[in-house]
Amino acid sequence: GATFLSYFAIQDSMASLIITFGAVGGLGAGLAYGPPMPAVSKWLPRRVGLASGVLLMGFGGGAVFYNELVTFYINPGNIKPDVTTQRTSYFSQSEVLDRVPEIFLVLGGLTLCLQVIGLLLIRDPQEGDEIEEVLGTELKPIVKEEVIPPSNDAQSVKDLDAKAVSEKSEPEQLNPLEVLKRKDFYILWVALGLNHYGYIIKNNYYKEFGALSIDDDHLLTSIGTVSTVAVSISRLFWGFLADVIGIKLTIMVLLGSTCVLASFWTWTLLAGPGLYFAWVVIISWVLAGAFILFPLAALGTFGQQHYASNYGLISTVQIVVNLASPPLIRALLDSFSWFGVFVSIGVSNLL
């Protein structure tokens, strides 16, 4: 819905587009993770991290096709930007700009078709289906097992150091109202928001920054396409890693890697298109891990029964970040140039 409405929003104002495509679309994308995850955990309860990675490969894989479609629909002649400032380049040619609103209708139609197909394919295991023998046990993927006095508190995010394996125990199933009373919810909410900030910059500004030295729009699109392939494969990797070393340690690896890679991003363009190409692909690989790890953290911390609603609450931070990021990024760009923008990713993940 947000994609279709963006056809009208972009012709109204930038603020309308940010609210429609950024906030509403971001919320919809976050909610889309909810329903399939419990079904996956029922099919592969012993390897929920790996299974979730396979599931979300499709989410990133779709962008491979979409990325190429957008560029070749809007700029089929590989026209170069004709407005250049000290920090960025822009298109002003009508043959490019006039096609922008129409692409939202194309993307909306394709997305609707794919979503209908996906909804028809989602189902829980039925009698006679081949599944792992431990089906029926509760997944306790991210909680360190320890003896504690009886209490009404569910497992804590700070204990996320156990491997994502199935245990024959009954984790507490928290509903959304109970989740809102837990500090773990706010830890995950803030952490996801800070990571999502970096994802927004990578997705929306890699071409704008790259265009300062690379005047080939199709090459820049190819960088994005290869990056989306890396995103799809990386989700399988991050899910497997979470099964092996645990959610907490994997999240620490993710945040630390993002901090280092983002801090050196500015200088990669000075070394040439090759290094810049590789750097964008690598940082895309790393940032994509959040789409696996935070859903798994929510599943293990708050239980499976109300997982879709609970993760929907966590994903509301994307609305805030999607609305706040554009003016913040522009302010950083005006005050500290691209160095400040990329370092802000490292700082946000370091927090």
Rough shape?
globular
Summarize the amount of helix as a percent range: 55-70%
**Overall radius of gyration:** 21 Å
For the termini, the CA-CA separation is 34 Å
Query: How many helical stretches?
Result: 15
Could you give the count of β-strands?
2
- Overall mean confidence score, pLDDT: 80
Oligomer: single chain
Strand order of the largest sheet: 1-2
The unreliable regions are 133-154, 162-168
Strand content: under 5%
Structural class: mainly alpha
**Sheet with the most strands, sense and barrel status:** 2 strands, antiparallel
Order of helices and strands: HHHHEEHHHHHHHHHHH
Keywords: Membrane, Transmembrane, Transmembrane helix, Transport
Subcellular location: Membrane
Protein name: Major facilitator superfamily (MFS) profile domain-containing protein
Membrane topology: Multi-pass membrane protein
Write the layout of secondary structure elements.
Blueprint: H1 2-12, H2 14-32, H3 36-43, H4 48-74, E1 83-84, E2 89-90, H5 94-97, H6 100-121, H7 176-179, H8 183-210, H9 217-245, H10 247-263, H11 265-268, H12 273-287, H13 290-302, H14 307-314, H15 317-350
Helix pairs in contact: 1-2, 1-6, 2-15, 3-4, 4-9, 4-13, 8-9, 8-12, 8-13, 8-15, 9-10, 9-12, 10-12, 10-13, 10-15, 13-14
Structure in words:
Keywords: Membrane, Transmembrane, Transmembrane helix, Transport. InterPro entries: MFS_Riboflavin_Transporter (IPR052983), MFS_trans_sf (IPR036259). This is Major facilitator superfamily (MFS) profile domain-containing protein. The chain has 351 residues and is an all-alpha fold. Helices cover 69% and strands 1% of the residues. The protein has helices spanning 2-12, 14-32, 36-43, 48-74, 94-97, 100-121, 176-179, 183-210, 217-245, 247-263, 265-268, 273-287, 290-302, 307-314, 317-350, and strands at 83-84, 89-90. The chain has a two-stranded antiparallel sheet with strand order 1-2. A hairpin with a 4-residue loop joins strand 1 (83-84) and strand 2 (89-90). Helix 8 packs across helix 15 and helix 9 (217-245) runs parallel beside helix 12 (273-287). The longest helix is centred in the C-terminal third of the chain and has 34 residues, at 317-350.
